[in-house]
């Protein structure tokens, strides 16, 4: 059980990818201010889980956000509540500048002072984005593009930040830097759901972890259990 009050609770979530059943009766929860990792081998259903939470994949089951049933709520409606996802492909507007991408992230915010405050926060977390403000997104390095994808998500004012493999394709040092910044955001109070291929890095940050295999949760571990469950992680998680 999480010591945090519920932010997100998922009950018996199933989802398909095309004609294939990918998720099967998944149950999980995320508390207010908690950092939760989702681990598992390729094909386990990790990306489908995030997409189903955002209604980018149709699913069945119950999704509660701060006690509200999201069954009939659109992707846009879920984002408006503060559920923000950074996709594996980052989803940047490649021909727009860093500043323009960040501005798009705050499109729903009508308060200019709040938008500016969010931008300053992003630059404090990722100073390199400030340095690259006028640069076209596709000309950034992979690590800088990932910073921009996260920064744009932060501009939306998330209550829950969900990330799909943010270290994918990055050099180890850059991956560690990106995940360290996520740790800082969590310590500042942001709830985070992280799907991550680099289990050791994710487990340094998470308070709990779910292990997915063939579309099912096969283990739920608290931070104090990570070190004693090498066999579970070795069996179901392949780095």
Q: What is the topological layout?
A:
Elements: E1 6-17, E2 20-31, E3 35-39, H1 46-53, E4 59-65, E5 68-69, H2 75-81, E6 83-86, H3 98-105, H4 112-125, H5 127-131, H6 142-155, E7 160-164, H7 172-187, E8 191-195, H8 199-205, E9 208-213, E10 216-222, H9 230-236
Parallel strand pairs: 3-8, 3-9, 6-7, 7-8
Antiparallel strand pairs: 1-2, 1-4, 4-5, 9-10
Helix pairs in contact: 3-6, 4-6
Describe the structure.
The protein is an alpha/beta fold and 239 residues long. 36% of the residues lie in helices and 27% in strands. The protein contains nine helices and ten strands. The chain has a six-stranded mixed sheet with strand order 6-7-8-3-9-10, with helices on both faces. It has a four-stranded antiparallel sheet with strand order 2-1-4-5, with helices on one face. Helix 3 runs parallel beside helix 6 and helix 4 (112-125) packs antiparallel against helix 6 (142-155). The longest helix has 16 residues, at 172-187. It is globular and about 45 Å long. The relative contact order is 0.18. The mean pLDDT is 90.
